[in-house]
Amino acid sequence: MAVNLNPSGRQADTGFAAALLAAAGWAFAEAGSYPGASGTYPQVLAVLLAIGAALVMLRSLMRPADPDGPRLFLHAGRFVLGLAVVVAYVVSIDLIGYLLPSLAVAVLVPLLLGYRDLPLTVAVAVGTVATIVLVFYVILGRPLPPDILDPVLAVLR
Amino acid sequence: MIEALLNALPHVFALPNLFAVLLGTVAGLVVGALPGLTVTTGIAVLIPLTFGLDPLFALGMMAGMYNGGSYGGAIPAILLRVPGTPASVATILDGYEMTKQGRAAYALQVAVVSGVIGSVLSALALIVFAPGLVKVSLLFGPAEYFWVAILGLATVASLLGDDFLKGVIAAVIGLLIGTMGTDISSGVERFTFDRLEFAEGMDIVVLLTGLFAIPPMLEMIEQAGRKGMPRELLNLKRQGSVLGQWRRFLPIWSRSSIIGIIIGILPGAGGSMSCYLAYNDAKRRSKEPETFGKGNPDGIAASECGNGADNAASLIPALSLGIPGSGVAAVILGGLLVHGLRPGPQLFNEHPDVVYGFMIQMLLSALLLLLVGGLAATRIFGQALRLPPVVLAPMILLFVTVGVYAVNNAMFDLYMLLLIGAVAYVLDRLGYPSAPIILGVILGPIAESQLSLALTISGGNPAALVSSPVSMIVATLTLLILASPLWSMWKDRRRVRSSAEAAS
What we know:
The complex is a heterodimer.
Chain A: H1 9-31, H2 37-62, H3 76-96, H4 99-112, H5 118-139, H6 150-156
Helix pairs in contact in A: 1-2, 3-4, 4-5
Chain B: H1 2-12, H2 15-33, H3 39-50, H4 55-72, H5 74-80, H6 89-100, H7 104-137, H8 142-154, H9 164-178, E1 181-182, E2 189-190, H10 204-212, H11 214-223, H12 246-265, H13 273-285, H14 297-313, H15 315-321, H16 327-338, H17 345-350, H18 352-380, H19 389-408, H20 411-429, H21 435-457, H22 469-503
Antiparallel strand pairs in B: 1-2
Helix pairs in contact in B: 1-18, 2-4, 2-18, 3-4, 3-16, 4-14, 4-16, 4-18, 5-6, 5-7, 6-7, 6-14, 7-12, 7-14, 7-15, 7-18, 8-21, 8-22, 9-21, 10-20, 11-19, 11-20, 12-13, 12-14, 13-14, 19-20
């Protein structure tokens, strides 16, 4: 039998409710170490969260399975691509700065998704990055993440 | 007062000061429309930039930034489901639905007209009622503020979405996140994971952006749409005029303005609470409450009008008593001090031309918003939707990333954005509404700290919570709001039963 990596709505509902239940348990235990009312309030909230999560779990388990119903991801493959892009983008910003990863993401994502109008994509990418640098860095004086192109940016100020 | 206003007029209408208001309004619109940048940030940036300039030039820019930024948040909220500011979360509920239905231009028009009406009435309230209204805010102590926060939380009932249970869970998640950071009553650090970044709790901008900007961006990538919105869907003329339908919106504008002004005046209660209360009020009174959250323009009108009405009103206690009504008002107070203007009753005596001039500038910027906001929103920002979603998705990512980083200049925030965004995607796909999470995070800490303060003052006597007429009124209002869904349910059942009996 083929394994579907995109969970059904029922499976996802149950799994997420279980994760919420675990988080509520952890929050309750953690809040127990806080003195007085500082701990009581979050403990009450954790109990409420646990009750809610248990009810959702029970409800989804009692619901009949619907093999044709909506699944967690709209398109599992493209979701993985999107998430991978976001993760790679943030890590790249941390490593080499904002400018080059931003240009790369703005050009590559449409290409990877099958959009072939390269002139428009490049124009939008350059225009967006230029606008961001102008508004945030030049006009508002907000810092951008440390960048390997900092010497170039310094000229703009 | 009239003499002081007349004396201030020539200063306000001096060309450089007029230009300052215009510049501030445009800048505010841009700042509000950029997810991650808040009005507070914009004004904080203006303070050093305008240092040494004429006070009315500086205050004119701040007035423009306040009103412009307040509306600017609605633009990405309606077009992209990304709230520019915390106050625009309620606008998303119906605004984005209208965009999906091809009524983006009309939704933007409702937002700008409603925001302008709220802002104008708020500015008029600031000018006319400032001294008298200040007395109202003096009636509020910790117990009253506790009830105001609970009243705000009670409005969560209108934001729960289709699944009541999941809506309640979302609100509890928000309340739990709101407990993160140092408990001000005991000094205990809660859920900080020994990270200094969490000492003051979860950053609201990071949370907001992760919850509302990342899921639609990921969904755009999943859908991989290669065609943008057709030009005709953004054509104003074909979608009707809001001003032509003023009779429909008038009751909502009136009530939302009053709500926004009252909430704005209460020190510390302002900001995003007014838009939720106004939205809840409009939904509760509507003959079709079930259409709210599904593209009802009344929802946008209420939210944006309440939001705009909060602006100038939050400056009433700030200018008169030196107590800010919102975070933005607190930054403006700092701006006044930088220019040697000490807020308080003496400000009205010592610098009447400046203080009344500033009030007129708030009114002026509200009116300018209609022109600048209308043009910019529909003719510039709206055009972003003509780009194919596959091109638009990375653009959103670029803007939110730089905006989130700019809040604290920390990479940590970007990693948090990533984590929150991934969880928010799952929440979104499983039908957990995000708005109650934000409401819980904003109001939970206020309710907890004010309750603690009220109980400490009364020596632990819970009766102190309902010992004043004001707290009793607000508590009763809260109970009424909480009971209203039950009342509607009972009425619906009765209607169904009677129609079944009639049929048989």
